[in-house]
Amino acid sequence: xxxxxxxxxxxxxxxxxxxxxxxxxxxxxxxxxxxxxxxxxxxxxxxxxxxxxxxxxxxxxxxxxxxxxxxxxxxxxxxxxxxxxxxxxxxxxxxxxxxxxxxxxxxxxxxxxxxxxxxxxxxxxxxxxxxxxxxxxxxxxxxxxxxxxxxxxxxxxxxxxxxxxxxxxxxxxxxxxxxxxxxxxxxxxxxxxxxxxxxxxxxxxxxxxxxxxxxxxxxxxxxxxxxxxxxxxxxxxxxxxxxxxxxxxxxxxxxxxxxxxxxxxxxxxxxxxxxxx
Length: 277
Prior knowledge:
mainly alpha; 14 helices; about 0% strand
């Protein structure tokens, strides 16, 4: 019990002003825990697990407030000294939080460096969920610096993990991202095939047919699936733009309408502008 109380004391008192914490603050606080925790190895492992959980919760709170740079500074410091504190490398959860911040800040090269480091340390022990997440972040980074073939390889790796995790929505997302990249590489046949495959996966995820979506007979009750709807609608819009580019007017119209029925405001405006209803 002593170890847990020490961790709680550390987190609740010395980290009260967590959002304003500096690198030196984090270093000194973690060193204090090292000096204070004189317990069995098993007890330390449990205490460190509790500490990590609450530290990441604190980081999440700062992220939710939009203080991304502050969260990144403190998280970087925690990662640096975590190995000294626990004799373990920073966890995948820590890297995932950092990746979320870097994606928000559109810091693509640092994101690639972070993904490479995480995979170097944890590749052999990644869970399916973790593997899918890290490789998808890597894919987004490559895509945004226009390294499309590298992005495709990352998305393919993410799909392998997400498939084993039976995560249909993420498989659909990664497949459509691959399609976008092949479009940028002017591989139009592959682009069309992958978009069709990805859209079919999304329809399976939402348990709806193409004809019902075209008719606007689409309601989503699940809160998480609602949050994914923006991703689905964006891919539908991208596919509509692609079909317009290669001259498939009817297909472009249908995908634009499906995107509008998923709530995409850009698709709604474009459909009304082009077709008048």
